[in-house]
């Protein structure tokens, strides 16, 4: 449908593009062109390049939405001239002089980090930690999340590339009040620093899976500002 904003999604750690599957069909039915970046968490530069390719492949204007570490990616890739709105979902949003780890280290660690291991140069989420990641999903969905999640290189959060899109682009932020993966206080501070239009939901780290209708409403709000 003419005049509809496109939507591009960026996933985070221990996830892949399918983590937005409860949002994509509805957005498509409402006339939006949608792409979910499939990046391998091999490097920040490579992941940003994947998101940028997705932006290049859809018509503008674009709502760029990122979950968790995907917030770092939209912060970097969102400087693209056809991105008109940023939506952060329980996400990081480092400033120009911060890495993802430096932003995260400003707040106490969350329980999920008691359930990780490094093997083959990657940071793996143990099965014992899935409840801290997505504990408000049914058990079957939790197992699916664990089985389909991409696994990051160990130094991913220490890597840096330029770009701070939220400095110049309007932003929306969904705080997950019950998050045990990204500290909710970090989320609130990030949203305040961005000057984002801020929402809060009683969710685990994955509100797009546990509260998809809520997240859809925020994305619609962002999209409408580009379609008027």
From TrEMBL:
SUPFAM superfamilies: alpha/beta-Hydrolases. The keyword Isomerase does not apply. InterPro entries: AB_hydrolase_1, AB_hydrolase_fold, Sec-Metab_Biosynth_Hydrolase. Transmembrane segments: none annotated. Keywords: Hydrolase. One of its GO terms (molecular function) is hydrolase activity. It comes from the Bacteria. Residues 7-217 form the AB hydrolase-1 domain. The keyword Hydrolase applies. Signal peptide: none annotated. This is Alpha/beta hydrolase. The lineage of its organism: Bacteria, Bacillati, Actinomycetota, Actinomycetes, Kitasatosporales.
């Amino acid at each position: 449908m003419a005049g509809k904003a496109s939507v591009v999604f960026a996933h985070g750690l221990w996830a892949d593009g399918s983590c937005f599957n409860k949002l994509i069909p509805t957005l498509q039915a409402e006339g939006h062109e949608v792409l979910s970046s499939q990046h391998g968490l091999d490097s920040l530069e490579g992941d940003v390049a994947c998101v940028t390719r997705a932006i290049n492949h859809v018509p503008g204007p674009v709502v760029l939405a990122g979950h968790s570490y995907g917030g770092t990616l939209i912060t970097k890739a969102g400087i693209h001239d056809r991105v008109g709105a940023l939506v952060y979902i329980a996400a990081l949003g480092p400033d120009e002089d911060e890495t993802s780890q430096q932003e995260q280290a400003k707040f106490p660690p969350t329980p999920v980090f008691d359930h990780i291991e490094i093997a083959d140069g990657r940071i793996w989420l143990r099965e014992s930690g899935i409840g801290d990641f997505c504990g408000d999903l049914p058990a079957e969905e939790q197992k699916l999340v664990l089985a389909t999640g991409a696994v990051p290189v160990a130094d991913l959060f220490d890597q840096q590339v330029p770009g701070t899109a939220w400095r110049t682009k309007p932003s929306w932020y969904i705080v997950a009040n019950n998050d045990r993966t990204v500290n909710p206080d970090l989320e609130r501070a990030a949203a305040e620093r961005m000057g984002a239009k801020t929402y809060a939901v009683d969710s685990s780290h994955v509100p797009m899976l546990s509260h998809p209708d809520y997240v859809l409403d925020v994305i619609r709000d962002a999209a409408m500002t580009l379609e008027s």
